[in-house]
Amino acid sequence: LTTPSEAIDGELLARSPGLRMCANMAVGYNNLDLPALTARGILATNTPDVLTETTADFGFALLLATARRVTEAERWLRDGHWTKWRYDTLLGRDVHGSTLGILGMGRIGQAIARRGAHGFGMRVIYHNRSQLDAATEQACGARYVSRETLLREADHLVLVLPYSAGTHHSIGMAELRQMKPGASLINIARGGIVDDAALARALREGVIAAAGLDVFEGEPQVHPDLLTLDNVVLSPHIASASEATRRAMANLAADNLIAFFTRGEALTPLNPEVLTR
Ligand code: GLV
Questions:
Q1: Which residue from 73, 118, 134, 183 has the least number of CB within 10 angstroms?
Q2: Is the peptide bond before 4 cis (omega within 30 degrees of 0)?
């Protein structure tokens, strides 16, 4: 049973000749070298679905905290500045009625879209490898747009796409420069999808207004420049961390192990082909 902090790669596999299964306690599985596992006939499973709504809640929490400068305001209060309060202290950016952009429209992206469209009256646009069917788009209140339109029009851009070599640095300085100067960027997907050094520079230079980040390149390290900026909300990879959901994830991972070792089956296999070999 693994978590995203453990890399199950060629080196580990070479030292683990008896390994038969890897149950990853996460929906994302870029910490697994899936082709290498499959080539050795090792089953891999992940934990989809059980974390969708909890992760979407956190994406929205980060979006709200970033737009309304919640953590910065708390630091200001704790630092004893309240006597300096003015009518224009800590002005943020509205969430209701603004444009929510979502890059990556899987289960979690769709759950975030529903919150934005139906809870906050947002105009929701998204970009994805493939367009959703019309009924799903309608249920999410979301409209498909090109990547360029998404970057140009979003007031709050949420990243929810899986990490792979193909999505490495999907958001770098060129993309940040296409965004509105008042926009915020929220990353609850994976570190490495954003070029964190470029993002820190963009936040310092006002290329975009703010960011909310739950994931980082090289976790648990955080780019030092991000730690010095006030216009970024930082959290340590906790989007799915509610008590109920972490329990559900652990149970699903354990149930996958039990199903495999008792019946040769899996509930949520990533490489089901190894079961039929
Ligand atoms: C957490 O990051 C997950 O992929 O479940």
A1: 134
A2: no
